[in-house]
Each structure stands twice: as C-alpha cells, then as structure tokens.
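TOPIC: backbone geometry
CONTENTS: sequence, structure tokens:
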Amino acid sequence: VRRGSMGSSASKEEAPPEAAAGGFSVRMTPELLQRASESSANTEAPVTTTRGEIEEQLQLAFQQGAEYAVGVMRQQAAEEGSKGAGAQIADARDESARREAEINAKVEALHEREYRPPFNPRACTEQRAAVLECYQRMSGQPAGETVFACEAAVNKFVECADFVRTANIEKIVPNSLPSVSVDKQGEPFP
C-alpha cells in the first residue's frame, strides 16, 4: 500500500505490481489511516459476525449484482433491438426482392422450355380421301359389292397408317422395330 496525499509526487507514481497484474490496491491518506485506527480503538468490543451472517450478506450482494446485470442486459437488448429492427426489416425486404427475382427467372425459363409439339400435317390424307370417296360412290350398293370395290383403297390406307405408327414408334424408341422400306413418293412397301 502506498501512502501519499493527493497531488503529491507519491500519489502520481505508478501503480503497485498487484494493480498492474490485474489485482487492485488501496491508497489511503494518513488522515484516513488515523481515523480508521481511532475508530477501531474506540470500539470496545470487536465486531463479530457469524459465518451464517457473512454467507447471508454475500448471497444478498450476489443477488443484487445479478439483478443489476439482468437489468443492464435487458436495456442493452432493447437498445439493440430497436436499432436492429429497422436493419432487419431492410434485410428482409432485400431478401424478399432477391427471391422474387429468382422465382421470376425460373418461371421465365420454364416458359421457354414449355413443350411445343412440332407441326405435322395429317398423315395419309390422300388414302383417307380415296376410301371416303369410294364409300360415298358405293353408298347405294349392297354391302358385299362395296367391300369388294373399296378393298384396294382401304388396304392402301391401312398400310399408310401402319407405316406412320411404326415411324412414330421408331422416333420414340429408336431401333425397336424392324426397318420399313419407303418408295420414292414416301409410300411404304414391304
């Protein structure tokens, strides 16, 4: 313990090693030391406290310190919360805008990938027209004569339909069917 009066060169000296090392020290003026020794001398009976009283005082001091710390922490949290709420709202808005842009981009990409079947003209239209024309021409004739008269047109239509079906299956599953020969006009032949 260093002793000196305020403003003297002794009070301006560096702190003792205990204080520098994280401990603490107490500086007392000579007058305070004298008063302390006089008051202890004037007391006739020494103050005695029981271990239970000391523990009770320690518990009380600890509880008061804990309550103070909780209060300070709540106040700091409230200050941070009020300052942080605006920033959180701004961050949430930015995140929302970013996600909306992502979703819009994905929707646009999906629309671009949407399946659009290729335009294929109706196959076998000439053969179909020939069959219809034959049945219309033979409309008043007996059924046997109609079948016999339109048999060639119907067979050509069936061959064309089989070829188109086979070609479409071949597009879906390549090399799954035997090959089909086609003449110069695109008509199938065995």
